[in-house]
Amino acid sequence: MKRAFINGECHIFDEARTVAEAILVENGRIAKFGSSAEIKEAAPDAEFVDLNGRILLPGFNDSHMHFLNYGFYKTIVDLEKCKSKAEAMETIRAYIQKKNLPAGEWVEVIGWNNDNWSDSKKLTAEDLDQVSEEHPIYALRICGHVCILNRKAREEVGLTRALPQPKDGYYEVDANGEPTGLISEMMTFVYSNMKEPSIESIKEMLLRSCEDANRVGLTSVQTDDFDALPGRNFDRIIKAYRELIDEGKLSVRITEQCALTDPERYDEFINAGYQIGQGDEWFKLGLVKLYLDGSLGSRTAWLLDDYSDEAGTKGFSVYSDDSDLFRLVERAHLSGADVGMHCIGDAACDQGVRAIEAAVAKDPSFAHRHGLVHAQILNEDICRRMAQNHITAYIQPIFIEYDLHMAEDRIGKERIKTSYNWRDLHDLGIVLGMGTDCPVESFNPLPNIYSAATRKDLDEKPEGGWYSQQALTLDEALEGYTGISAYLSRDEKIKGSLEVGMLADMVVLEENLYTCKPEHIKDIRVDMTIVNGEIKYSRN
């Protein structure tokens, strides 16, 4: 089938930065671009879509998020909009009553953030017990790294003082050695002791994610899904994606960032017949995803020195023994697989860089694209070594919407100078892919691009931008959402530009982000999202 998009401002994103008036699509690929007259002459039998002067870009590609989590969270209790602990507790209570949940059925809760609450009081297990002692309840903080379990939930999953502290997580105990209900980096333990959803349920979650993603111009995402659901069944998740493809229902291209965080999980994956790199243009297994620390907001990001606002606290290391991490990175590297490591604190970033350096020393011949996911708190030495070892960075500029209001208090005036330092990283030659870490933040690309270019929160504060010398240009931010994101998933030959032969994945915006005020970029709406040449979303 031929479809032509005419009378527009089509940015090809080729090396010459060509801007064409029209684009011809045939069989899901870009067949030609040029003037509207040229396209009409070349394909008089095409279906014509009049852009009426609007701007058309390559489709947005989020380099790191949690796509299945987004759909899953739409089915459970979300506390993100709550303004106090009391409101959060009432929201959970109302959910139980509305659903008429029988005693013993799980209540799953996400999104609480006491930093945004009027009373700033942390949620506790006792609070959840007040909501219900008959239902097991877990409440996962917005960052995804800290969770609260009520007494019934602790009984259900077997969290007692007899449980050894896990190597890759932590549960808090009181003065008597009893678990308080607060856990860090232990959701895999919780999920492994819960009933897993069916493939049909997973497909429904994914379709919800696809629909909302298309509304904001996403045509591809790179997503960490394997630990997203109770049961942690990666085989069932992969089958759900593939069934949606067979049914012609998947409208977002997926690169799975495979969470294989220990040798046993890695072996299970390989023994099931899977390999990194397997897949096609709709779904593929992209890299090995590891977690090295927590989050800055919860003070579980792992720092080299104490938190500036909490002496004696350095955060949390998932791999307290370097050798455990080094073996996993080396295994992936020697098999020809890229690794993406969640690293927020400078100690975690340093450990991640050292693991890559050790793996590269074993086999310098592999042209790796290993990267640090987030790479927030850095220092000059880490930045230099990242550049020397061709280590990429998966950044989330939208994080400053929240972080600019607390980060300097957390880490102090000196460390902040080399943190969230996108301009410095770019100028060192470090590849920067753009993403949102959704559902931690919205997966709408436009506010993220705005954040990268202005260094302001969504209220357009502070005046002049937060450490504005670290801003990226609009073109750099867009490249991070297109060509560089494609590079990170090894898809640069089929995605990221609209050159002839590339996949016909495109987005049409209601306004031209090149000519509007930078502060307005966040407010621009998507008019049309095209995937494989098919219009998957149209605002009008």
How would you describe this protein?
By secondary structure, the protein is α/β, with parallel strands linked by helices. The chain is built from 18 helices and 24 strands. The strands form four sheets. It has an eight-stranded parallel β-sheet with strand order 8-15-16-17-18-19-20-21. A six-stranded mixed β-sheet has the order 3-2-7-22-23-24, with helices on one face. Strands 9-10-11-12-14-13 form a six-stranded mixed β-sheet. The longest helix is centred in the middle third of the chain and has 17 residues. It is globular and about 80 Å long. The two termini are 23 Å apart. The mean pLDDT is 96.
Summarize the structure.
By secondary structure, the protein is of the alpha/beta class. Strand 11 and strand 12 form a beta hairpin.
Give a short account of the largest sheet. Answer: 8 strands, parallel
Oligomeric category: single chain
Count the beta strands: 24
How far do the termini sit from each other? 23 Å
Radius of gyration: 23 Å
Strand content: 15-25%
**Average pLDDT across residues?**
96
